[in-house]
Design brief:
The complex is a heterodimer of chains A (109) and B (117). Chain A is mainly beta and 109 residues long. In chain A, strands 2, 4, 5, 9, 10 and 11 form a 6-stranded mixed sheet that branches. Chain A has a 5-stranded antiparallel sheet with strand order 1-3-8-7-6, with no helix packed on it. Chain A is globular, with a radius of gyration of 13 Å. Chain A has no helices and 11 strands. The radius of gyration of chain B is 14 Å and the shape is globular. Chain B is an all-beta fold and 117 residues long. In chain B, the strands form 2 sheets. In chain B, strands 2, 4, 5, 6, 9, 10 and 11 form a 7-stranded mixed sheet that branches. Chain B has a 4-stranded antiparallel sheet with strand order 1-3-8-7, with no helix packed on it. The chains are: A mainly beta (109), B mainly beta (117). At the A-B interface, strand 4, strand 5, strand 9 and strand 10 of A face strand 5, strand 9 and strand 10 of B.
Chain lengths: 109, 117
């Protein structure tokens, strides 16, 4: 079983829809990242969380440390949000990131 | 700031050849991470440096892979000899660790797409 699991693996939405991507992890962590990777391949860090909730524009990330679960929400989705979204955790035992398999999001106009 | 700089962006080589990938950290950052991304295995950490010292190299696949930080702002990842299964996108990321609040987020370079024929 992977230490970091994301769901769904693939998600197709219509423009304007509210989107949620989930991440569950099974290890103790000091922080959790949400990353975005566009078809061109570049990786952008969207959020780094250790507790609570963060918001940036139409993106919201939440984390529940007790339940070992995080969610990434996109409000009013747009075709340019189409990308792979990757959850990654930093274990409390070190500095390395452990990655989920990613969620491929496609937003259709 | 130019962000993390990687070169080359694309590399095509033949099996058995030596490959050197380069990374320049963001100015002021003190930690560097080399990652590899493949379709089969996703993103994996290869090695992590802090203040020029290798801290965790448990992800380096085998002796054919080596990484160095000759100075505080630059790193190389070398594969010798290269094999077709090394074909992947190699990302470098930098961060400032030990700053206010402890662990800081990582900033990724654009990646080097390596193809070994």
């Amino acid at each position: 079983k992977n230490e970091v699991e994301q769901s769904p693996q693939n998600l197709t939405a219509q423009e304007g829809e509210f989107i949620t991507i989930n991440c569950s992890y099974s290890v103790g962590i000091s922080a959790l990242h949400w990353l975005q990777q566009h078809p061109g391949g570049g990786i952008v860090s969207l959020f780094m969380l250790s507790s609570g909730k963060k918001k940036h524009g139409r993106l919201i990330a939440t984390i529940n440390i007790q339940e070992k679960h995080s969610s990434l929400h996109i409000t009013a989705s747009h075709p340019r949000d189409s990308a792979v979204y990757i959850c990654a955790v930093m274990k409390t035992s070190g500095s390395r990131l452990t990655f989920g398999e990613g969620t491929q999001l496609t937003v259709n106009p | 700031d130019a962000g993390v700089i990687q070169s080359p962006r694309h590399e095509v080589t033949e099996m058995g050849q030596e490959v050197t990938l380069r990374c320049k950290l963001i100015s002021g950052h003190n930690s560097l991470f080399w990652y590899r991304q493949t379709m089969m295995r996703g993103l994996e950490l290869l090695i992590y440096f802090n203040n020029n010292v290798p801290i965790d190299d448990s992800g380096m696949p085998e002796d054919r892979f080596s990484a160095k930080m000759p100075n505080a702002s630059f790193s190389t990842l070398k594969i010798q000899p290269s094999e077709p299964r090394d074909s992947a996108v190699y990302f470098c990321a930098s961060s400032l660790e030990g700053g206010p609040g402890g662990y800081n987020e990582q900033f990724f370079g654009p990646g080097t797409r390596l193809t070994v024929l």
